Amino acid sequence: MIVLLHPGADPRPIEKELVNAGSGTRRVRDREQLGVEALPPHPPLHHLRPRLQSLPGVVAVLIADDPLPKVTSARGPVEVADFLVGDGNLTFAFGPCAVENEEDLRLCARAARSAGARLLRGGAFKPRTSPYSFQGLGALGLQLLRRIADEEKLAVVSEATSEFSVGEVAEFCDLVQIGARSMAVTPLLRSAAKCGKPILLKRGFGATVDEWLAAAEYLLDGGARGVILCERGIRSFENGTRATLDVGGLALARLRTQLPLFADPSHAAGMRPLVRPLALAAVAAGADGLVIETHPEPSRARSDGPQALHLDELQPLAVACRAVHEGVALCSQSWPKTTLKQQSSASPR
Ligand code: PEP
Ligand code: MN
């Protein structure tokens, strides 16, 4: 890594950052141009890029062979409808697994709104494991989502399952979801990147953090208006839960990129009593937002009923998550440097 400076700029703050991260440094000069080089072999430094770029006097941060240049240099919150995601506030997306009918969706939207959610979620095109399961209402589902979200002054997120439906989903939604099963479908990623709406990118349940970030790189490289990453649980040998919420992966992603990070504890838990502890753990690990399924009467939900929260559970959950979020923000004021040092001293495998 080489950090290029404006002539006359002070290199010491850059050197300090690099040394704190466990790297050696050397000043390099080419005529008027001064640079600070991280001395090899140095620990992984990609996560430092946004921070270094924001220091006074920095012209550019050059990283040789960075496989994810756009993901590692992406900065700042993502604009969804008329609000920002990842601006330091916790964002909630609440709603049913699938849009089933107008009445139930309205009840979900009202409960989401009163619990402080900004987004109404709901599947219109459902990627189901069995071809005989309810596949969603399709275009009608999108229309219902839009109308009811507008009534309740919420934004809408829904999944696009193919490159052929992504335009239609983007027309009705403020945030387009790419689901876990589609995370690595590059034609879909390429189309979604051009849909004009920001993307919520779920992590595939068999994908490493690097593969997940590479999918985000496809979106950014294709011109996506913004990308929010969402951890939703990965496959492990544990079969007591539906998936294993990877809080370590969430924290690792936070080190690699400044893109906003969401977690979906519902699909990881697979059962109602686990949603709350997983939600709190995700917030503690650095999530900027949560996607949570809910239903007015989970026992008659047409999909994912066992993990759907009752509507009156949303408000207390949101309060608890906000408390953890505030606690984490307070701790991190005195924390970042230690965290970076510890991370860089871990030996690479
Ligand atoms: C969903 O959010 O509706 C969904 C199907 O999630 P995932 O892609 O994470 O399984
Ligand atoms: Mn679901």
Strand order of the largest sheet: 7-8-9-10-11-12-13-14
Name the helix and strand elements from N-terminus to C-terminus, one letter apiece: EHEEHEHEEEHEHEHEHEHEHEHHEHH
Derived from helix and strand composition plus strand pairing, the structural class reads alpha/beta
Number of strands: 14
What is the CA-CA span between the terminal residues? 21 Å
Strand content: 15-25%
Main β-sheet: number of strands, strand sense, barrel status? 8 strands, parallel, barrel
Overall geometry = elongated
The tally of helices reads 13
Mean pLDDT: 93
* Bound ligand species: phosphoenolpyruvate, manganese (II) ion
Fraction in helix? 25-40%
User: What is the gyration radius calculated from CA atoms?
Assistant: 21 Å
Which segments are poorly predicted (pLDDT under 50) over 5 or more consecutive residues?
Answer: 337-349
In short:
By secondary structure, the protein is an alpha/beta fold. The protein is 37% helix and 18% strand. The C terminus is likely disordered.
Keywords:
single chain; binds phosphoenolpyruvate; 13 helices; binds manganese (II) ion; alpha/beta; 349 residues; four-stranded antiparallel sheet; 14 strands
